[in-house]
Amino acid sequence: MTTSATPGPALAAGSQPSGIRQRLPPPTPLWWRDASIATAWALVLFVVGLWLGGGALGETGLLGLTADAVTSLGRLAGLLASVLLLLQVALMARIPAVEQAWGQGELARVHRLVGFTSFSLMLAHIGLTIVGYALGTGAGVVTTFLDEVLHSPGMLLALAGSLALVMVVVTSVRRARARLRYESWHLLHLYAYLGAGLALPHQLWTGQDFRASSVATVFWWGLYAAVLAAVVAFRLVLPLVRSRRHALAVRDVVAESPDVVSVVVAGRDLERLRARGGQFFQWRFLGGHGWTRANPYSLSAAPDGQTLRITAKIVGDSTKRLAAMTPGTKVLVEGPYGRLHAGAATRDRWLLVGAGIGITPLRALLEELPAGPDRTVVIYRATSDADLVLTDELVRVARAKGAQVVSVLGPRVRARASWLPEQAAHLGDAEALLALVPDLGEREAYVCGAPEWMDLVIAAAREAGVPPEAIHQERFAY
């Protein structure tokens, strides 16, 4: 493990950070997250209240296993599946207050949990409802299922929607997801919107809980309309308006090393984007194959109000397109997103831990952190000197800020899961962090790198005394 004031030999950095800095937006209020959690629970409890208000207890009793009881429980499962599905869509609608409160990495984790819960409840709804109807009529389960699908209004559409959701869930299982290209997975994932839409006619035509009272009708129509409006406004309209307003276009493409490229994008009035160092955008570079697909890239330099810069490692088709980009290419963006920025901090001392290309948002973040001796420590993990990125800029910014930079070089430990290199295998993960940063428990920690490596760093930081709310991360694994 190597400790140094400079993280290694400087690579050729073709684009230098500007000395101009834009006015920073205020910190994100901490209560926004609590408010979003309270809103979600309020919606779920209101749905349960509507179910109870429809006479559910009279049907089920305490131990009732009658046909009406099973059917009523099936209705509850369906209602909860519906509200969770809508919440799942809302979580990824890029609603600014929600996104800023949680960050995309945490939102994706909650989105996944809510999604699998909603899917399980949907299966329970189908199973319980069909069994309840079968008990009531004396017909078999298969016969009842076919009769419902073929003769109940909206059921064919609901079946198609359910199959679309099955496809989304199956391709979201980690093992299946690992076999898919990001672009293919993202396209399949969009079928969740189709599944939610196809379920609506069935719920409105045959769902008695949707039509039980004017309150229920207004609630469900209003919730569907609000979620649809959020998706249209924040996923479609706002990105198009922003991209048009700022007239974004590629100004320069710089090969930082044989497998790392930086792209500088210029535009007008970029300070109105209110972007911060460490955040990311979803980028679409117009023209050429693959322009319709958005890809997340973090800013690798703090915004200066005139340009935005990203730096990426060339590992696939999307990043190869970056290297081949020509100046003048028009750009569409969604964002800025993420909580890997100074506004999320609650302390006045910081630790930035990055690995490989994951150092780029931390290099941008470092530019925005206040200067002061020993206020910031940067740990840069890489396999070798050749894997270090933007090191000359990182060192220059660190010197200007009075920050300490520590490089941790070498192949990973083989005997156990660890964020450390082989030569530091004798140290525990938390022990090594404390050896480098003795006052770690008093600092805010920002981590960026490969997901598995980040998990190990975060676990070590928590073991060393950093509370969960003082650890910030950003993940781009799908």
Automatic annotation (TrEMBL):
<dbReference type="Pfam" id="PF01794">
    <property type="entry name" value="Ferric_reduct"/>
</dbReference>
<keyword id="KW-0411">Iron-sulfur</keyword>
<dbReference type="GO" id="GO:0016020">
    <property type="term" value="C:membrane"/>
</dbReference>
<keyword id="KW-1133">Transmembrane helix</keyword>
<dbReference type="InterPro" id="IPR013130">
    <property type="entry name" value="Fe3_Rdtase_TM_dom"/>
</dbReference>
<keyword id="KW-0812">Transmembrane</keyword>
<keyword id="KW-0001">2Fe-2S</keyword>
<keyword id="KW-0285">Flavoprotein</keyword>
<dbReference type="InterPro" id="IPR001433">
    <property type="entry name" value="OxRdtase_FAD/NAD-bd"/>
</dbReference>
<feature type="transmembrane region" description="Helical">
    <location>
        <begin position="30"/>
        <end position="53"/>
    </location>
</feature>
<feature type="transmembrane region" description="Helical">
    <location>
        <begin position="155"/>
        <end position="173"/>
    </location>
</feature>
<dbReference type="InterPro" id="IPR039261">
    <property type="entry name" value="FNR_nucleotide-bd"/>
</dbReference>
<dbReference type="InterPro" id="IPR050415">
    <property type="entry name" value="MRET"/>
</dbReference>
<feature type="domain" description="FAD-binding FR-type">
    <location>
        <begin position="243"/>
        <end position="343"/>
    </location>
</feature>
<keyword id="KW-0560">Oxidoreductase</keyword>
<dbReference type="InterPro" id="IPR017927">
    <property type="entry name" value="FAD-bd_FR_type"/>
</dbReference>
<feature type="transmembrane region" description="Helical">
    <location>
        <begin position="185"/>
        <end position="206"/>
    </location>
</feature>
<keyword id="KW-0479">Metal-binding</keyword>
<feature type="region of interest" description="Disordered">
    <location>
        <begin position="1"/>
        <end position="22"/>
    </location>
</feature>
<feature type="transmembrane region" description="Helical">
    <location>
        <begin position="218"/>
        <end position="238"/>
    </location>
</feature>
<feature type="transmembrane region" description="Helical">
    <location>
        <begin position="73"/>
        <end position="93"/>
    </location>
</feature>
<dbReference type="GO" id="GO:0050660">
    <property type="term" value="F:flavin adenine dinucleotide binding"/>
</dbReference>
<keyword id="KW-0274">FAD</keyword>
<protein>
    <submittedName>
        <fullName>Ferric reductase domain protein transmembrane component domain</fullName>
    </submittedName>
</protein>
<dbReference type="Pfam" id="PF00175">
    <property type="entry name" value="NAD_binding_1"/>
</dbReference>
<keyword id="KW-0408">Iron</keyword>
<feature type="transmembrane region" description="Helical">
    <location>
        <begin position="113"/>
        <end position="135"/>
    </location>
</feature>
<dbReference type="GO" id="GO:0046872">
    <property type="term" value="F:metal ion binding"/>
</dbReference>
<dbReference type="GO" id="GO:0051537">
    <property type="term" value="F:2 iron, 2 sulfur cluster binding"/>
</dbReference>
<dbReference type="GO" id="GO:0016491">
    <property type="term" value="F:oxidoreductase activity"/>
</dbReference>
<keyword id="KW-0472">Membrane</keyword>
<dbReference type="InterPro" id="IPR017938">
    <property type="entry name" value="Riboflavin_synthase-like_b-brl"/>
</dbReference>
